[in-house]
Design brief:
This protein has a domain of 149 residues: Glucose-6-phosphate isomerase like protein, domain 1 (Rossmann fold, 3-Layer(aba) Sandwich), CATH 3.40.50.10490. It is 56% helix and 9% strand. A 4-stranded parallel β-sheet has the order 2-1-3-4, sandwiched between helices. Helix 1 crosses helix 4 and helix 5 packs parallel to helix 8. The longest helix has 28 residues.
Length: 221
């Protein structure tokens, strides 16, 4: 769909608007991938664009499979931690934005769950001093070059808290997609697992519904 019809899709605004309304943030990523990497290709900076775009067709089914695989894990995580008074969420490299978005816009804004988001590169510059028994810590392990930092965080946290959870994106393979592209696409995996699955199960166990806000668009600020 994307590799062969990329140009048609990019021009078809009705198609874009319809799918933006009926798909999640993962679809927004796919649109950005088409746009940004096409620009780079036109500049001669991404000669692998055609292969990348063709393989992007396989992403939706891969994400669906990841959701199905992660479903019981998301339920378990939420049932254990949704009512904790505080938790730390860690992700590095291209995943940092996803972790930040999930903690601030989903857990804090939508669900009123108190969190701390930190990148794996900055974890040892302060936040690690808050890790102790009873403090939930979540690590989203990436597939790119920053994984070495994630491993360092994992080794530390395993020693100092009894509430440590690792969501390793390598456990959710992107079938049919070359390894050289997987780090680029990895934020879509973390998004579909965190926002679409963990967030929804947190909603279930906190009893707080998405969209029930005190202040957002409700008062002057």
């Amino acid at each position: 769909m994307i590799g062969k019809r990329g140009t048609e899709m990019e021009k078809n605004s009705d198609w874009v608007i319809h799918n933006r309304a009926t798909n999640g943030i993962e679809f927004q990523y796919m649109l950005l991938f088409i746009l940004v990497f096409r620009i780079l290709a036109n500049r001669g900076e991404f000669p692998e664009y055609k292969d990348f775009a063709d393989q992007l067709e396989l992403l939706p089914n891969n994400l669906l499979n990841a959701k199905k695989q992660f479903e019981p894990i998301a339920d378990k995580i939420a049932s254990q931690y949704a009512k904790e008074p505080y938790s730390i969420w860690i992700g590095g490299g291209v995943l940092w934005g996803e972790v930040y978005f999930f903690t601030m816009c989903v857990l804090e804004e939508f669900l009123w769950v108190r969190t701390k988001a930190v990148s794996s590169a900055e974890f040892f510059h302060g936040t690690f001093e808050l890790v102790e028994e009873g403090v939930p810590v979540f690590l989203i392990k990436g597939v790119g070059k920053e994984r070495e930092l994630d491993n360092r965080v994992e080794e530390f946290c395993k020693q100092y808290t009894d509430k440590f959870e690792v969501i390793d994106l390598m456990d959710y393979p992107l079938e049919g997609i070359e390894d050289k592209f997987k780090w680029i696409l990895s934020p879509t995996i973390s998004s579909t697992l965190l926002v679409d699955r963990v967030g929804r199960y947190y909603e279930k166990y906190t009893g707080h519904k998405f969209g029930d806000v005190r202040y957002y668009k409700s008062v002057d600020y």
